[in-house]
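Appendix B. One record, verbatim.
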Amino acid sequence: MNRSKTYTKRLTNLIAIGIVVILASCYSDESLNVPVTNPDINLEKDLDIYIEENFTIEYGMAIRYRFIDRFVRPFQRVTPPALEVVRPMLDFIEHFWIDPYFEVENGEEFFRSHVPAEIVFLGGLIFNDDGTVTLGTADAGAQITFTNVNAVDPDDDNWVALQLQTVYHEFAHTVHQRYKLPQAFETISPDGYTSPGSWFNLRNEEALQRGFVSPYATSSPNEDFAETVAFYLFEADFEEMFFIDEPDCTEADCASRNEGRERIRQKVSSIGEHYLKFTGVNLAELRERVQSRL
């Protein structure tokens, strides 16, 4: 054994004992039981009670804002949500997602029977190894994940668009997962779909010319369905962008854009009929309720 280390260790122990004795003599007749308060503990407790009463019991919907690594893949990087933004985010999804369904015929029944069992809040975006960013995810109708919750700001148009596109897109997946796609939906833009992992190489105009509302919609018929529903519900200028043809087209690009708009009109009509037939929800009425809140 190293004697110098032993000596140093004994000296350290003696000093520690001496400090304890001094402290004990100074406070021999006094209590040091100082109450410690942590506002985060109370905030979290109140938040959990609110979630239990207003979401879990009311809709059978669990809100996950802890242990976020459980809800992403190993190669994805995420940030947890701050406690103080969870309640404002809950208010946001209630106002813009849940309430509009309750205001249209058959909407409440549809919502309650299709609502996912889990809602996950992530503080930031999901960054993937391939350089892309995931805005939100859905898991077979059982889970919807919101990202960038820490930036919650209902007055920020870009942030609102991100969240609404996410929730309307992911909730639309529950329809085709349960009732399949509308008949012949895949044949409306049969040559427009991209190969896996290449959709982000398209520009918005190229997607429109192919008959899609966004580049991501070209990634598969299922994503085309969900993306079309999302844009139709939240985009205020949807008709101007995707329905109304440009007049007096003399250039090939203009004619291609109008051809794309015709395909999008067919898709919206097909989707609207599909929703009405299988869910009883009129998408046009739902759009009106959503737009009245924006």
